Amino acid sequence: MESLDQTQSQIVAAAIQLFSENPDKKPSITEIAKVAHVHRNTFYHYFETRSEVVFAIFSELFSFPANEMLPFSELVTQFLDIIDEHRLLFVHLANFHETFDVEMLTVFMQGVGKMTFFEALSSAERQLLYYSMVGVLTGWIKNPDRIKKDDVRTFLLPVSYTHLRAHETCA
């Protein structure tokens, strides 16, 4: 996503604030606009739907340098650190936004899409890898007392390395 202008940034920051303050409540567009100090119509000038502002949140939090290819283990670590840092925001998103998994898929694909092993996967393998990650991440987001960050990382890394090794031996 291109860099946000000041008004877009205010709206995204307001949404992050409201989503994080009370993860069990779905604030209205009017409430987001009020906290952003903009008119409700201004919100709709920048974002047609609540899903678009959620995508902007994901894009801002999970921005990866275009020219830098991270190792998968580093990508997973960054994902987990960002989610951990913004725990209440992600609880809200997982509970209230039906497009949560779509946004996760999009940012995951942006970060992982440049990796050689990922390009070698079939569409079905990509989906399996993605859904296993989103399922585990969502479980951790909703149950941090039962599922620990290190356990999530330990689960996610072998999944990717298994695919990597399988495609290296086939090549």
Low-confidence residue ranges: 163-168
**Which geometry do the CA atoms define?**
globular
Count the DSSP helices.
10
In whole angstroms, the N-to-C terminal distance is: 34 Å
Number of strand segments? 0
**SSE pattern:** HHHHHHHHHH
Helix content: over 70%
| Chain-averaged pLDDT | 80
Written overview of the protein:
The structure is a single chain. The protein is mainly α and 171 residues long. It is built from ten helices and no strands. It has helices spanning 6-21, 29-36, 40-46, 50-61, 72-85, 87-96, 100-112, 116-120, 123-142, 149-170.
Write the layout of secondary structure elements.
Layout: H1 6-21, H2 29-36, H3 40-46, H4 50-61, H5 72-85, H6 87-96, H7 100-112, H8 116-120, H9 123-142, H10 149-170
Helix pairs in contact: 1-2, 1-4, 1-6, 4-7, 5-10, 9-10
